[in-house]
Write a structure and sequence with these properties.
The protein has 125 residues and is mostly helical. It has one domain: Globin-like (Orthogonal Bundle), CATH 1.10.490.10. The chain has eight helices and no strands. The protein starts with 5 loop residues before the first helix and ends with a helix.
């Protein structure tokens, strides 16, 4: 989109932070996946670390300056046995959040393309 990075189209660091907050909030309420996320409510330090890692991952992967130091997608999801329904529920939450933040359609498509490219590293690993 006219040479504008995905990072900038997502609102830079503040925009990505706001997106992560809303995505995690939706995951906590989504009946398909909330059981995986609600335990974090009792571990605020782990929840905060997870959000920081997700912000850094999204920023680094979208052209920002953050350095992602977390685990690989496959290692982060290993043993979770995530199924297709759960994966799609998470994507629905991401798409809902992008729309809420008035992210344009092309940027939504770009984010979903990246998410789909990671699917094999997340499902049933």
């Amino acid at each position: 989109m006219n040479g504008t990075s995905l990072f900038d189209r997502l609102g830079g660091t503040p925009g990505i932070s706001a997106l992560v907050e809303d995505i995690v909030g939706l995951h906590m309420e989504n009946p398909v996946i909330r059981a995986r996320f609600r335990p974090y409510l009792e571990q605020p330090e782990k929840l905060a670390a997870t959000k920081r890692h997700l912000c850094a991952f999204l920023e680094a992967g979208s052209g920002g300056n953050a350095q992602y130091t977390g685990r690989s997608m496959q290692d982060a999801h290993r043993g979770m046995n995530i199924n297709e329904t759960e994966y799609m529920a998470a994507l629905d939450d991401i798409l809902q959040t992008l729309r809420k933040h008035a992210i344009d359609q092309q940027t939504q498509n770009d984010v979903l393309a990246i998410a789909y490219s990671l699917k094999g590293e997340i499902l049933r690993v």
